[in-house]
Design brief:
Radius of gyration: 20 Å
Number of helices: 13
Strand content: 5-15%
Helix content: 40-55%
Catalytic activity: L-arginine + H2O = urea + L-ornithine
Pfam families: Arginase
Number of strands: 8
Structural class: alpha/beta
CATH architecture: 3-Layer(aba) Sandwich
EC number: 3.5.3.1
Distance between the termini: 38 Å
GO cellular component, one term: mitochondrion
Shape: globular
Largest sheet: 8 strands, parallel
CATH class: Alpha Beta
CATH superfamily: Ureohydrolase domain
Bound molecules: arginine
Subunit structure: Homotrimer.
CATH topology: Arginase, Chain A
Length: 349
């Protein structure tokens, strides 16, 4: 069983992992306003609505020094013809190259990094940049979708459904040379990755997941096992052999659409609020979170301003709890409050 919580943090500080050492005190926030990994406009406004929902204030309350790096400035390449069926390959490739450089520099400078998307194609650059600094990282992908289509298996041609295929060494011979992506080579093995929350897997993706023996937890698995057991198995799978940096790539569509309606590819039957937050609390408790992405908040797709605000606030909650915000204090005082305990006992009778 992997070590977690204060003990793992103590061990880690004693072992002095270079990728993590000075990380705990400093959090950097990087906006990536980008939408060409899919066809719906609006997801490029994700960083703004997440900031407007109070992200920086919330993180400042958590005892870090916060460095807001602002937003990257992406260029949309003209006449970016599809390659095979892949849409906007050069634009997505160039944006991810820029993300990769920025993430690598931030991690190299000792920050824990939060990347605000933008669509999920941006994880190609985010995880690649992280891997440049921390080649032994592991990846936790929380999402309704596996995003592991190759250009051949993709039903849509959208690159936000394909980022993981760019990362995996085992898929290298299935990936054509897509224009815009010559800067990156696969850097992860299928053992370094766990999915949580899946419920919309394309046939080609299912084949890849099974073929490579990737550890994944669908929503049905969450139903059967409970989120506590899912996290135990997931973290054990990634960390039992060695403690190493975690990259969390969190797509807001992992949540049920009733909680996160403002997103481009919602799928019914998603995570509850507590299930999603429990995932992030457990990741925080490892002491190993190094980079996280929060992607696919699209303010133009909410039915009304309240729906957009709810989705953005949820994104803030996910980020804050990944970085240690907790309601434990409130719970501890309930546990210690004898009158509450008495009530509970009476209710049991
Ligand atoms: N990051 C996302 N929202 N991905 C949705 C992907 C949908 C579909 N599987 C596709 O490949 O097009």
């Amino acid at each position: 069983m992997a070590l977690r919580g204060p003990l793992s943090r103590l061990l880690r500080s004693q072992l002095g992992h270079t990728c993590q050492q000075s990380r705990a005190q400093s959090v950097a926030v990087l906006g990536a306003p980008f939408s060409r990994g899919q066809k719906r406009g609006g997801v490029e406004h994700g960083p703004k609505v997440i900031r407007d929902a109070g992200l920086i204030d919330r993180l400042s309350g958590l005892d870090y020094s916060i460095h807001d790096f602002g937003d990257l400035n992406f260029h949309y390449i003209e006449k970016d013809e599809p390659y095979m069926d892949v849409k906007f390959p050069r634009t997505v490739g160039a944006a991810n190259k820029m993300v990769s450089g920025a993430v690598s520099r931030a991690v190299g400078a000792g920050h824990t990094l939060v990347m605000l998307g933008g669509d999920h194609s941006l994880a190609i650059g985010s995880v690649a940049g992280h891997a440049q600094q921390c080649p032994d990282l592991c990846l936790i992908w929380v999402d309704a979708h596996a995003d592991i289509n190759t250009p051949m298996s993709s039903p849509s041609g959208n690159l936000h459904g394909q980022p993981v295929a760019f990362m995996l060494k085992e898929l290298q011979d299935k990936m054509p040379d897509i224009p815009g992506f010559s800067w990156t080579k696969p850097f992860l093995t299928s053992r370094d990755l766990v999915y949580i929350g899946l419920r919309d897997i394309d046939p080609g993706e299912h084949h890849i997941l099974k073929d490579l023996g990737i550890q994944y937890f669908t929503m049905r698995d969450v139903d059967r096992l409970g989120i506590q057991r899912v996290m135990e198995v997931a973290l054990d799978h990634l960390l039992s052999r060695k403690q190493r940096p975690i990259h969390l790539s969190f797509d807001v569509d992992a949540f049920d659409p009733s909680l996160a309606p403002a997103t481009g590819t919602p799928v019914n039957g998603g995570l509850t609020y507590r299930e999603g937050i429990y995932i992030t609390e457990e990741i925080h408790n490892t002491g190993l979170l190094s980079v996280m992405d929060l992607v696919e908040v699209n303010p133009t797709l909410g039915a009304n301003p309240e729906a957009v605000q709810a989705t953005a606030l949820l994104a803030v909650d996910v980020i804050a709890s990944s970085l240690g915000q907790t309601r434990e204090g409130a719970r501890a005082s309930i546990d210690q409050n004898p009158s509450v305990k008495d009530d509970t006992e009476q209710l049991c009778l």
